Structure formats: C-alpha cells, structure tokens
Amino acid sequence: MEEKVPLQYATAKAFILTSGFWMMIATFYGLLGATELMAPDLTANMGPIVFGRVRPTHINLVLFGFVTPGLLGAAFYYIPRLLGAPLYSERLGVFTAAAWNLFLAALVITLALGMTQGREYAEMIWPIDVAVVVAFFLVFFNFIMTVRQRTESVLYVSVWYVLAACILTACTYALGNVIWRPDGGALTGMPDAILLWFYGHNVFGLLLTPLSAGVAYYVIPRATRNPLYSHTLSLLGFWSLIVVYTHIGTHHLLQVPVPTWLKVVAIVDSVAMVIPVMAFLINIWYTAKGKLGEIHADIGAKFVFTGTIMYFFVSIQGSFMALPDVQRVTHFNNWVVAHAHIGVLGFAGMIALGGLYYTIPKLTGRPLFSRFLADFQYWMVLIGMVGFTIVLTIAGLIQGNAWLNGETVYRVLPEIHVYYVTRAGLGLLIFSSAVLGFYNIVRSMWSGNGAIP
C-alpha cells in the first residue's frame, strides 16, 4: 500500500472527483427546483427544466452522483488498508468510475427529455437501471476479491458495512425497479407500491446508511487515536440494521389498502430502528469521548462527527413519523422533505464530505489546498441543512394541519410562500458550498505546492 505503486488509489481519486463534480450539478438542480416552487412561472413551457423533471434529476444525482460516490471514494482508500492488501484491480475500479459517470450523464439527459418510468426514486429508464446494477456488482466484485487476498485475518466492521451496502443495493435496486420488465419497469396496483417502497426506503437504509457507518467507523477512531469502543456493539448494530431496516418501507403506505399485517411490521420495525441507531451512535460517541478537540482539529472528522449527530435526529424523527397518529399530520407535505434533507444531506452527505476531506491528504501526501475553504463549506452546509429543516418543517405543519381540517391546497399555498423563498435562499448557500468544495478538491488533488491554511 505504498504511494509509489503506479495506480495506487486511482479508483479512490476517481470516485472523489465524481462526488465533488456531481454535488455541484445536483445542488444546482435543487436550487432550480426550489426557485420554481417560489416562482412557478419562471420556467413555464420550458420542457427540459419543468419541476416534474428537475425534481427526480436532483434526487437521483444527490443519491447516486454526490453521496454514494463520495462514500465509495473513501471506501476505496480504507478497505485496502484495513485488509492489508492492495485493491484487487485499480483498472477495474477506474473503469467502474468512468461507467458511473456515463450513467449519471445519461440520467440527466433522459430525465430532461421526459424519458422516465414515473416511479419515485425509480425514475430512470431500463438501460440506465441495468448500468446501475452492473456498476454495483463491479464495485462489490473488486472489494470481495480484495478481501480474498487480504493479509489481515479480522474483518473490521467497516468492511462488513461496505460489502453489504454494495451487494444488497444491487439486489434491491433490481427488485424495486422491476428490472425484469424492460418495457414498463413496474408491476400492477398495490404490489407495485409495496415493492417500490421496499426499494425506496432501502436505498437509504441499505446503501447510504451502511456506507456512512463504514466511513464513521474508520475516521473517528483514526482521528481521535482511540480504539473502537466495542467491536461487539458494532456487529450488533450491523446485523440489527440488516434485519430491522429492510421491512420499514411500507410505513409510507399506511393510508392506502396495503395488508394490515405488513403495515404493523413496518411500524414495529420503524420504532425498533432505535436498536441499530443507538448501537452505532453509542459506539462512535464513546470512541470519541474526551477527544472532541482532536475531532475539531481534523476537518474530515468534524464533518463525520456532525453527520452522526444528524443521524440521531433523523432516526428518532423517522420512528415517530411511522406512527399513524403522527403521520396524519406529517405525511404528504414538506415535513417529509425536511426529514429527507436531514437524512441525505445532514447525515450521509456530511459523512461523505468528511470522508473526502479526511482521505484526500492521505491520497496526495499533502494537506488540503485550503482548510479555510473546507471549514467554510462545513458551515455553509450545516447552516443550509438546518435552515432547510426548520423552514420546511414549519411549512409541513401548516400544510398538514390545514389539510387535516379540510382546507384546500390552493388556499394554503400563499401561507407557505415565504418559507419557499427562504428555502431557495438556503439552496443558493448549499450550491455555493458545492462549487467551493469542488474547487478545493481539485486544487488539493493537483496542486503540488502553494497550499494555503
């Protein structure tokens, strides 16, 4: 694992650059969508950028363009180190990163042209679905072959999480996107809704969550120079996540004619999510106990530790939102959008950025081009994400209570317009942070000298 190896860490660098670039594009689409909600006539009759096409582009680019490649970029660095063996094939890894960028470009083009399956989180057309599944299998193959040639006998928990995320996502993505039906990509009626939300929630629970946990389990002990608090607790968190999270997607369908037993399973498991969440958080926080100074000093660890705090908030909120009495007010409105931003940007996004900033100096043998810009991005993302949460939660409560009392949609819109304006302003903050972050990443990768504090 010496830096002198010609292709060493080329895959990690490729995925890190992928994440930084597509974060800019993804947040631009988010800003565009927020602007359209604030001023709907701004892009009227402009087909490729109407809201119905901008929103799925934004969501899929955040999931598969920004967060997942960022977490994988860190994994392609730490997996070989944890296993005591070089990555099985850097050439395969770089090829996978190139193919990943091609399907992201195809995603943007096809959705802009209105080519969609019209299913939430499963909008992409069949050829792109196939490319996504193949990409995850290639990543898994590279990792599992690296495991096979390892010199370290004990598999650290980060390895468990990364391998599970790759293989389980390949399977759930194929199922949720009904990949065996190229012509339509959907089943009929309620079975389709059940299968869709089995996938829709597991793209968070079996992809972003384990990849984020893997990064946290590597970065926090390294940054604090403390041993992991409990290996046993880490395995409890791993297996309980796999068992419990898998079944909670149906809590999005409590108000539709899904079998009652399936709703009960989803509600019970949503509440039971406290087990894997607290197993992970107790382990990370006790590992960091007494070492918050070291975490503050390391910008990567700072991002990651903040992400674990956001994980606490989003998970507790999610458990309560699965309760039918709570969901009557919080579902189908901006409350859920606020919840999603805490989870994807606050938890997984923060940890992805932390993984990047922790890993880049190790890849280049130099400090970050600008610690100031990284810190500035940290505060911009944190303020933007917390701001999103506050304004969208308020807007969601206004909508939920109005609709619960029989109010019509159009009469509620003027009441929440000010929150949409605020949201767009915060979106500009997030987009600006992505531009600064990409500049910092590129300069850190290729600037041999002249690093600034």
Number of helices: 15
What summary fits the major beta sheet? none
What is the CATH topology classification name?
Cytochrome C Oxidase, Chain A
- Mean pLDDT across the residues is 93
Number of structural domains: 1
Reading off the top of the CATH hierarchy, the class is best stated as Mainly Alpha
Low-pLDDT parts are 1-6, 449-453
- Class from secondary-structure proportions: mainly alpha
Helix content: over 70%
Question: What is the correct CATH architecture?
Answer: Up-down Bundle
Outline the secondary-structure elements.
Elements: H1 10-38, H2 51-83, H3 90-112, H4 126-148, H5 157-176, H6 190-224, H7 231-245, H8 260-272, H9 274-287, H10 292-297, H11 299-321, H12 324-330, H13 334-364, H14 371-404, H15 409-446
Helix pairs in contact: 1-2, 1-3, 1-15, 2-3, 2-6, 2-13, 3-4, 4-5, 5-6, 6-7, 6-11, 6-13, 7-9, 8-11, 9-11, 11-13, 13-14, 13-15, 14-15
Structure description:
By secondary structure, the chain is mainly α. The protein is 76% helix and 0% strand. The protein contains 15 helices and no strands.
Any descriptors?
disordered C terminus, 453 residues, globular, 0% strand, mainly alpha, Cytochrome C Oxidase, Chain A, 15 helices
